């Protein structure tokens, strides 16, 4: 589905990404783990076409994302959920307006005007919220509920891949567990793939089939989640695992 082939990115002579390569299969969840400054968010911005890599190639469904027509077509298929849900929503808009905007302005998708509440209510139900939330403003929701709405916005265009960029770090541990269960359910129901970016290896291992460990812009280790956890090969990976808390509700 997505092929990242030896991409690099440099800012002001600092190498932020160095020869990064990995793939994501349809419906697969891949975790990208690393501490702050390791290049995780830069990689996410490159995939979303918010930044352009200096070298290397990115392929979506076998076609190069360097082609503007491919990039344009991919914008409905690749969505992102950011770290801070409150700053991702307009504080002056109800949830109904935020979701409706995603249909009409971002993606220009057809939505039946006479049945807007039902359609948007069904979208909220997909993320575990009732239709009554359509009339609420962000300040009337908890942080976890706001993040559910952001996930609902990402689902508007029925994407094939969702990039989750530190999307749980603003939530407390119990709410993290609830959102992880939601993401698992959505993956099963919609066959959507994830690129899950985090500094928290405990959270990533709960959701991902494979892990990539990013350190100073270099992928120092990658493999199946259970293999990386059971037998880490790189000292940096071992240091990350040394401090992993045990959350039993994160397990399947």
Q: What report would you give on this structure?
A:
The chain has one domain (2-87, 160-250): P-loop containing nucleotide triphosphate hydrolases (Rossmann fold), CATH 3.40.50. The model is unreliable at 247-252 (pLDDT under 50). The longest helix is centred in the last third of the chain and has 18 residues, at 173-190. With 252 residues, it is α/β, with parallel strands linked by helices. α3 packs parallel to α5 (143-155). The protein is built from nine helices and ten strands. A hairpin with a 2-residue loop joins β9 and β10 (218-224). The strands form two sheets. The chain has a six-stranded mixed beta sheet, with helices on both faces. Strands 2-1-4-5 form a four-stranded antiparallel beta sheet, covered by helices on one side. The chain starts with a strand and ends in a 10-residue tail after the last helix. The protein has helices spanning 40-47, 68-77, 95-106, 116-126, 143-155, 173-190, 201-205, 225-230, 235-242; strands at residues 2-11, 14-24, 29-33, 55-60, 63-64, 78-81, 161-165, 193-198, 210-215, 218-224. GO terms for molecular function: ATP binding; ATP hydrolysis activity. Belongs to the ABC transporter superfamily. Residues 2-241 form the ABC transporter domain.
């Amino acid at each position: 589905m997505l092929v990242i082939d030896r991409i690099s990115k440099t800012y002001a002579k600092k190498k932020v990404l160095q020869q990064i390569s990995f793939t994501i299969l349809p419906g697969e969840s891949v975790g990208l783990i690393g501490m702050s400054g390791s290049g995780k968010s830069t990689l996410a911005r490159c995939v979303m076409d918010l930044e352009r890599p200096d070298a290397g190639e990115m392929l979506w469904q076998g076609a190069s994302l360097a082609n503007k027509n491919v990039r344009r077509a991919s914008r409905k298929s690749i969505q992102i959920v950011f770290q801070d849900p409150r700053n991702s929503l307009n504080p002056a808009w109800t949830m109904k307006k935020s979701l409706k905007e995603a249909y009409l302005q971002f993606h220009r998708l057809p939505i039946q005007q006479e049945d807007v509440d039902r359609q948007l209510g069904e979208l909220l139900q997909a993320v575990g919220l009732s239709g009554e939330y359509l009339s609420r403003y962000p300040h009337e929701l908890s942080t976890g509920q706001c993040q559910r709405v952001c996930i609902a916005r990402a689902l508007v265009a029925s994407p094939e891949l969702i990039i989750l960029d530190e999307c749980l770090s603003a939530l407390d541990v119990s709410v993290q567990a609830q959102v992880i269960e939601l993401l698992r359910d959505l993956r099963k129901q919609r066959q959507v793939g994830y690129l899950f970016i985090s500094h928290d290896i405990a959270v990533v291992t709960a959701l991902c089939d494979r892990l990539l460990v990013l350190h100073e812009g270099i992928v120092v280790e990658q493999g199946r989640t259970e293999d990386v956890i059971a037998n880490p090969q790189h000292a940096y990976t071992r240091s990350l695992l040394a401090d992993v808390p045990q959350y039993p509700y994160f397990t399947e």
